[in-house]
Design a protein that fits this description.
With about 230 residues, the protein is an alpha/beta fold. Helix content is about 20%, strand content about 25%. The strands form 2 sheets. Strands 1, 2, 3, 4, 8, 9, 10 and 11 form an 8-stranded mixed beta sheet that branches. The protein is globular.
Length: about 230
Amino acid sequence: MAGFNKVVKTYDEALDGLKDNMLLMVGGFGLCGIPENLIETIYKKGTTGLTCISNNAGVDGFGLGKLLEKKQIKKMISSYVGENALFEKQVLSGELEIELTPQGTLAEKIRATGAGIPGFFTATGYGTLIAEGKDVKMFDGRPYVLEPAFPKADFALVKAWKADTFGNLIFRKTAANFNPMIATAGKITVVEVEEIVEPGELDPNFIHVPGIYVNRLIKGTFEKRIEQRTIKK
């Protein structure tokens, strides 16, 4: 990797510097658009004590759910965790911390991190456990809760569809989900993609994340599991 070229050749190089007890942001929604190979590399490295900000934790045995097998995740900050039996078991036994956040609030906290905004007010969560200990302010007679942005993640792990070697990213349909926001919110942003092209080959009108946010880029092959396969009878 040199100059504007963000491409690395191996997943170990992509995650160089990852250490125990770091804060990670991980893209994806269910199993859609998850950086599955980066997660698998963390699993093999055995990195532990991680705090992960992600919409959910994949499923048992795949995605972030795989990291639960060796108890590599210390804390999950998520909006939904209903697909993981092992997750439930570890939370109830006290082995895994959890911070549940409404999905829209989670997305905005990530976006605020990337935008350099320290916090924002939202009506979501007022009068619930989510608002406990947080400042409340009235706007037009309605109470709003002050939500702080997240700290910058040590690593932001992202899955995109296509990129050029400069790191400009295009996402495909719903696989974008949390990925574009997370790409802006890391100290080191690592992106795995299905296709890498030369600079100038991407239509600038369709670039979702500019390469200025991307530190490392790697081409991968993906299993793309279906979370819950439903077929017509």
